[in-house]
Batch of 2 targets.
Target 1
Amino acid sequence: MGGHGGGEEEYLPLFETKLVKGNVAYKIYAITVFVGICLIWLYRFLHIPRAQEPARWAWIGMFMAELWFGFYWIITQSVRWNVTRRYPFKEKLISRYGDKLPAVDIFVCTADPKIEPPTMVISTILSVMSYNYPPEKLSVYLSDDGGSEFTFYALLEASQFSKQWVPFCKKFSIEPRSPAAYFAQNSSPQDTTSAQEWLAVKKLYEDMKCRIESAIENGSISKDIRDQHTGFSEWNSEVTKQDHQSIVQILIDGRTLDEVDDDGRQLPTLVYLAREKRPHCRHNFKAGSMNALIRVSSEISNAPIILNLDCDMYSNHSDAIQEAVCFFVDEERGHKICYVQYPQCFHNITTNDIYSNGANAVHEIELTGIDGFDGALYGGTGCFHRRESIFGGKYSKNHRGEMSSILFNKMNDRTVRELEAAAKVLANCSYEKDTQWGKEMGLVYGHPSEDIVTGLTIQCRGWKPVYYSPERKAFLGVAPITLDQALVQYKRWSEGLFQIFLSKYCPFIYAHGKIKLGAQMAYCVYLLWAPNAFPTIYYVIIPSVCMLHNIPLFPEVSSLWFLPFLYVYVARNACSIVEALTCGDTLKAWWNSQRMWLIRRTTACAFAFIDTITRQLGFSQTAFVITAKVVDEDVLERYQKETMEFGSSSVMVTIIATLAVLNLFCFVGGIVKIVWGMDLNFADHLVLQIVLCGLVVVLNVPVYQALFVRHDKGRIPSSVTFKSVVLASLVCLMPVY
Ligand SMILES: O=c1ccn([C@@H]2O[C@H](COP(=O)(O)OP(=O)(O)O[C@H]3O[C@H](CO)[C@@H](O)[C@H](O)[C@H]3O)[C@@H](O)[C@H]2O)c(=O)[nH]1
Ligand SMILES: [Mn+2]
């Protein structure tokens, strides 16, 4: 405060942005690697075998693969060049804004009661209902694309239970506020009076869970329960997941004081939404559901800020809203900000993260690096949006200060029934016809990675996003726990991302002149996951097979050209180990991530590439395979022991097995040949190939175990073992040109 005598208040920012230390050292390192890459290219170029010489095409292939890897490496420098961090000051927010804080609408999306159990969904809902934020400013919306009355019933139960849960959370300041996560992590407190209360709430929670689960098990909802709420009348024998009218039910009306918690305080508004679904009408998956939520909420609460979450992502920090709001209401820079994205973290990651889901280095380095170029990605969940920018608005300087105190309850005096009726219309299939929804407004349609493309369009309308990774994780979700699921998810991502690259939204064209070049490049680090497949497949097949045939593809150890290969390889991996360790991974987790990197690129990325091309040619349509969030006990146990779960005879598993067996054959065969012939001179020429092939073999140890040693259900089926041995043998016999 104080000002300059004129009564003007001194400006104290509500958040800060800082460049991470070590930036110069990194840049020097990157330049040396770049020189190494150029030397490798030069070596390849100067040594291309002449027309009649052996292995000319194999050599040219190596050159192309290395050109791609080098080019991709250059692109990835964008996400390391400018790593910045954000620091919000929530104490200042409270003292400055008091009861003028903006209202927040929270969207939770679910799509299938079988693989996203309603009990999990309502734990997420309860966690966001109990934020440390004035409840009269919060409205929680559940979008149920499964259109399931079990989900509706679960939400109804949650609305009742919230009356005890919310005051309990606030009284004891507990974390996390998802009842499932909280009771799984904590035992009852020592002192007797609180212990009693604790046990009572736990019992209420468990009874509720039991009622929901038994209704699901019975496959129907009893008449007693149906009589509790008129909303059940929406479900009749004709309602199916793919075919039903819009359903909007306001379960808690936060405007009135009729619905209060056990301490007599107001509760957040709670709304159930199942948008209309018709077989002939495209529903556009999650993007469609988000757009329906944006419209329905604008009719009911119309908060200026929206938090969007997947149904498995519970709130792990009850102050997260306050921190996010700091960015939006900062007097100097807040009006430019469109969204605040939090990292997508998971609560079920094991110590050494076998499927490399944790992606700590991606969260702490790459995504903060993109933010350094004002290009933070929208990741689909754990993201706070400015309603205006996600709605389709362009940034303009004149918007300053509009955010502060929009309070819907003062403006909206319609009854609950009137609101529901008005909202239903907005959730109908026909509503979007001939509108800009899915194009210029809301989330963009037609891409399985609707989040990334939407983020890009928002930035191109002039807004600035923020990436914020707080010390205490703000949201925690469920990571896939079988290899199959992990790869299906990765395939959807790579496919969706590559599709963006090939569409009119390609950052180098669409975003040219609108966002920084560094940000355009950073987008491409992800958009180009899929094309990594082929150079990688080439690199794990050809050098190994050539080694078996005694054909050198790399310089010999005694040559000076050997050095750039050695340097680039060692420097790259050393850097990636340092990154992983500083971001909190174990060394073994880093090693596991290398295996997953190989598996993802040779399977998920390859399929993503092929499917994107066939889609582009019009042979197939966009799909969205939902990641399962439940598994059997058996599978869970193996996951906790960090044993890889193959367990299927899918094409992906066959490819993984074949590549592993092929390299084993080549490695053993190659070594035997060298030892047999005692030709050390030749060994000198093949050192790098032996090392490369040997590394692939060591990386694949868990695959060999699953092929030849294990007996559990997660092993690789013997039909696949057979196929992979035959295929690998055929490849070994293949002549090289
Ligand atoms: O038709 C659909 C399909 C999915 N969902 C919801 O979308 C969310 C994400 O689906 P999930 O199968 O869990 O995908 P993930 O791979 O975990 O999702 C990541 O990647 C998606 C894009 O591929 C983003 O939409 C997500 O926000 C992001 O978390 C879930 O809450 C689903 O209920 C719908 O609402 N409607
Ligand atoms: Mn998910």
Target 2
Amino acid sequence: MRIVDLREVTAPIASSIANAYIDFSKMTLSLVAVVTDVIRDGRPVVGYGFNSNGRYGQGGLIRERFAPRLLEADPKTLLNDAGDNLDPDRIWATLMKNEKPGGHGERSVAVGTIDMAVWDAVAKIAGKPLFRLLAERHGLTANPRVFVYAAGGYYYPGKGIEQLRAEMRSYLDRGYSVVKMKIGNGIEEDRPRIEGVLKELDGKAQLAVDANGRLNLEDAIAYAKMLRDYPLFWYEEAGDPLDYNLQAQLAEFYPAPMATGENLFSHQDARNLIRYGGMRPDRDWLQFDCALSYGLCEYQRTLEVLKTAGWSPSRCIPHGGHQMSLNIAAGLGLGGNESYPDLFQPYGGFPDGVRVEDGHITMPDLPGIGFEGKSDLIKVMRDLAA
Ligand SMILES: O=C([O-])CC(=O)C(=O)O
Ligand SMILES: [Mg+2]
């Protein structure tokens, strides 16, 4: 049993949306295929992975550094003790050989993308949905019903409050109970946007707001004072992701739930947020996204760090809207997952036929991560592996 190839293609996921920090006019992602010599149902098992939006494709790093490391390794060193499957942690250690600690950034995206494909292959070789495999490995009971919320509400050229309200209405109509919109371009602009959306929701769903790290301490506090007039689901990523002091100070001005963590890419950074960011385990939310942060092998270490600090995995609702985090949520008891109903296709979203009901989806029993159940996505994946 061995990995015979690792392929990468950098693909566009560009759109004309913008948050308070970046626009997505040149956004890309890496799609990878880990091809094995294991045969299931008459064809070789191929694991697939991609990074989520917000960081760009990592073709250079994957092709120059990580794929060669994996393909040059003695295949036996990448297997589990029983020799009947690949071992994700041994593969992870091989990928990260001769990498210094610290400075977690783009390489964490490259490794997270490959790691997703490896776990997909491992669950397919085991013949199980990844969420069931994960639950078994951790001695837990899987729960295929997962909370999801609808993320959107971007700034968009020429987009007025009426369009924003219509967008949010469409999420309500599709079964979501929590929706999210962007803020951070200025209180004068954002207050009427928030009030318009709340009016549209009319108490039938809750609203989360996301500043994408745009605000300095003074502005983050000014926003906090404005936002606490409204019953929000959460106030997300007010300031720079590494400014733990800002996050900690904000709690004095904002008693309601806050969320952050999508731009922290290692368990060490997650631990610093918990140690120094003043995050409150009884109400705040952690959004670490394995596809940007060294993958599920690292995410399991992050969950250990949280446990040690007294945090439940149910406080985690990852960023990114991909099926990998849906599997982790269903298998390891996270609080849910993000979803972008109208963006980043064909990568994000759910297998065909999966519907949102009362803000939840139910995972179908598909081997691996479940990409084979999403016809537009598996088509581009198979094109890469062909
Ligand atoms: O706009 C983005 O970069 C995505 C984002 O923050 C989120 O989904 O929370
Ligand atoms: Mg965000």
